[in-house]
Amino acid sequence: MAEELNSFKIAQAQLDSAAEMMDLDEQAHALLREPMQTVIVNFPVEMHDGTVKTFTGFRVLYNNARGPGKGGIRFHPQENLDTVKALAAWMTWKTALANIPYGGAKGGVICDPKQMNEKELEHLSRAYVRAIAKFIGPQVDIPAPDVYTTPQIMAWIMDEYSKIAGQNEFAVITGKPLEVWGSEGRFDSTAMGGMYVLREAAKLKKIDLKNAKVAIQGFGNAGMFAMDLVTKLFGSKVVAISDSKGGVYSEAGLDYNTLVKVKQSTGSVQNYEGADVQKISNEELLESDVDVLIPAAIENQITAANADKIRAKILLELANGPVTPEADEILANNNVFDLPDFLVNSGGVIVSYFEWVQNLAGYYWPAEDVYKKLDAIITKSFNDVIATQNEYNSKGKRIFPRTAAYIVAVSRVVSAMKVRGWF
User: Does the annotation count 106 as an active-site position?
Assistant: First the structure.
């Protein structure tokens, strides 16, 4: 991977920028530039033909000053340690910004789930848990789903860990099916949290979402829910959508239910048809003339090379790390209101926190209570970011929303490390 697109170097650069702006203590800065614990495991898995294949997995605990580690598990053929470290760092800031009692962690396995059947996926999931079991736990590090991992995989992981522990440990992992005490409202929580942030951003920028045009990059869980919710909650018109194979654009707007059927039956939204529907690339989608752009796919999509071509008024980072540091200033200079990933997509971890609390208490909440609590927490996070940005700007220190979010989050982690006597 080219150095400028190394996710962990990007995460460090973002921290460094905030550290300089807030005149962060050098000892604290050094502690926060690297993860506290990095685990690499190699483990055997029996495949459907009876052969045994060795897989490599990771689990990174970035910082636990404010509570146990929290972070998803990715099953991906291009998974690598630097990406896992970056995501663990971002989870640290995400949980601190939301002000919930967690640190940050992340995990992953190098594999291609699309080439594996269900039994192989189950064998892989259980073998991975056995390999990392001593590094996770309800009060140590609580995983969750991420790219190409599902509620079913979370159930297998919980079951395998429970066997090792000798008792049910529902709180070891979140994002579980409701049958094994997942939380109501968890499955669309990332997109729902993003919608609450979008609502507040539109108020601030005086944008009428009912008449807004929206483009969404990505049609996985986050992108699908985002499309459904932005139309249902605000009446916005989604004019462009894409997946890994490309996208479609329609000035008249795209129909959600039809898109879901097309994706399920053909494997790509590009096969969506209509009178005014045009096939577009992911690059063209990002540069669409829309009011709201929602990157909901993968990292490093908006860079110095294309940031000048972004025409949206609001950029809502539903994906992790879709915008590089070099792009931040370009977007700001062009008056694009770029809302950072670890604010926008924190709904997932906030409701994961609710799931963990419910598991520990053995008391469960209806969906309306979950959404109400999510709205309160993420709206407070948005207001904290804007207040910090305004405070620094009033002192002549021009900062972006991302830097403001970092300042809020890093300050909280540093305060916890200091009172614990870590520096």
Answer: yes
Asked if residue 304 belongs to a domain, the reply is yes
- Is there a domain that residue 203 lies in? yes
Domain that holds residue 62: 35-167
The contacts of residue 114 (CB under 8 Å, 6+ apart) are 148
Give me the phi and psi of 145, to 5 degrees please: -75, 155
Does residue 248 share a domain with residue 193? yes
pLDDT of residue 325: 83
Query: Which tokens in the block code for residue 344?
Result: 């926008």
pLDDT of 233: 96
Q: For residues 196 and 163, state if they share a domain.
A: no
Residues in CB range of 75: below 8 A, 6 or more apart: 108, 109, 111, 113, 121, 124, 147, 148, 149, 153
Task: Say if residue 1's pLDDT is above 50.
Answer: no
Distance CA 400, CA 64 (A): 27
pLDDT at 135: 98
Distance (Å, rounded) from C-alpha 52 to C-alpha 146?
26
Which residue is catalytic, options 70, 94, 106, 213? 106
69 phi and psi, to 5 degrees?
A: -60, 150
Distance CA 377, CA 232 (A): 22
Same domain, 120 and 243: no
Average pLDDT, the chain: 94
Cβ atoms of 350 and 193 within 8 Å: the answer is: yes
Q: Same structural domain for residues 162 and 201?
A: no
What predicted TM-score, i.e. pTM, was given to this entire model? Answer: 0.93
